Amino acid sequence: MQVLIAGGTGFIGRALRIYFEGLNIDTKILTRKATEAYHVAWSPAEKTCDISQLREVTHIVNLTGEGIADKRWTKPRKKALISSRVETTDFLYSLTQKHCPKLIGYVGISGVNAFGFGDEKIHQENDPFGTDFLSHLVKDWEEAHKAFDFLPVFSIIRLGMVLSPDGGAYKKIAKPMRWGFGAIPGKGSQWVPWVHLKDVVQVIHEGLTHSQGLIHLVAENSSMKNLTLAIAQKEKRKIYLPNIPPFMIRLIFGEMGGLLTESVRISNEKLLSFYALKHPQLSTL
Prior knowledge:
Layout: E1 2-6, H1 11-22, E2 26-31, E3 39-43, E4 48-49, E5 59-62, H2 75-83, H3 86-99, E6 105-111, H4 133-145, E7 153-159, E8 161-164, H5 168-178, E9 191-196, H6 197-209, E10 213-217, E11 220-223, H7 224-234, H8 246-253, H9 258-261, H10 269-272
Parallel strand pairs: 1-2, 1-5, 2-3, 5-6, 6-7, 7-10, 8-9
Antiparallel strand pairs: 3-4, 9-11
Helix pairs in contact: 1-6, 3-4
């Protein structure tokens, strides 16, 4: 088994490589800056790749895509968010068709923000897509992943907010707390589907070895208030400042601010049919 991780230098990719190494699984990382022996140089924008290192690849994990919450969603930024997922996946597929004769398994990563916002319905995997930007992004992203569904093992994993003290959203929420400026975004009652990083890497491994189709990977839907307070407790900090009003978040972040102020509720019923969460509650962060 040789796993190729596209987008493997990010928060999830780094943890996944370490996890695979612990299982003695040969792992390679596709990256634009190849500096390590396990790196495979590529440039989706320039359509180049060191194809000599692809011949033994048996499984692929596709984590490609610029960070959703890294920058304000201007028109150029939206285009970059789409192309870094869809066009990059299309290029990855073209590479595998020519240079990965042993490929048998694929996991594509997606997001749970596929249904628009709202706090009433708990969404299942087969619910229809929403009409907002994120829903269209997820739909196009998953269509690109489906080019690989001819393989014996194929899974698409929709992630909730991935939490771990090692980085990601946790680190962004905890940072102002460490300086005494922690605050709860929005009203605090909005629902946030989240999952721990350690469960993410294990479910990705499961998706590489057993076809799961489309799966929601979330531990639970927690209120933003409870999520923020759980991180504060983990950091041994207290929240002294008042909630950040939704209008202020919108003013600062624009359309992207909805990620912090609006509700999304996601079912993990299918996930629990084959996997026992190691971090099922905020108390286990």
